[in-house]
Amino acid sequence: MFECNSHRSDGLPVAETYMFVDSHCHLDRLSEQTHGGDIAATLAAARAAHVSQFLAVAVSLEEMPQLAAIARAHQDVVISAGMHPLHSPAEKEGAESEPSVADIKDAAEQFGAVAIGETGLDYHYRDSVPVDVQHERFKRHLIAARELDLPVIVHTREARQETLALLREYSDPRVGGVLHCFTEDLAMAREAVRLGFYISLSGIITFRNAEPLRELARQLPLDRLLIETDSPYLAPVPYRGKPNEPAWVVKVAECIANERGISVDEVAMQTTANFYQLFRAAAPDAPVHVKEALAQSGLL
């Protein structure tokens, strides 16, 4: 079986690394198979693996109160506000079911979101939500992000040119965002970086058939990469087929380190710095040891 093995150039065990950030997870959707569905236990397991920050990402505005409650209970959790391109919103009597720019902004401000999203375009399941609806929804999120000066979390699948076109027209390159759980090609990644975006890699990079993503991990500048789990989805090798969890973001970092021939610590340090440079609203509340380490290294 293929395995994206890791190494560390400093010879230390991977467990010594203490700088990981899970830049995209869905803590309100944990499987019962993951620590009994207990969020506190799941986060404790991740902290034991040296994951020190979590971005809990919204897929609907309806779930914002639940995400905000999780963030209040756990100081190392920050949240986003937005609606997934494939989410079907509940009908609101006497009102449009699609969120307006004002709705998105209000949710972000009310619940203290550090980003807008996830939003974007997904043409793989275009029959689920019509393309024209996805386009309008994405545009509204981009406008909200621009007006709030917040980065945007982008989901894109089989819609490369359309996604890039909307980013060019409506996103703010000074603020940027991230193309999360990236599975498209290197050309799209490079254009997104040119537009001010980061590229986030998930457990998919460890899959046997993901050589194009591993090539992307080798080619893109390390200072434009983030790591994520997208848990409870897409568990990395050797956990593939199980519900994913934030602790396993370490496997993504290990794979990137292996592909680039560098230490896991270097990947952890740089991707953590990248996270706080992008999600600036999260930086003041970063763990003290993380801020100190990044400051000493000149990365933050």
TrEMBL record:
Keywords: Hydrolase, Metal-binding. Gene3D superfamilies: Metal-dependent hydrolases. GO terms for molecular function: DNA nuclease activity; hydrolase activity, acting on ester bonds; metal ion binding. One of its GO terms (cellular component) is cytosol. The keyword Hydrolase applies. This is Uncharacterized protein. It comes from marine sediment metagenome. The lineage of its organism: unclassified sequences, metagenomes, ecological metagenomes.
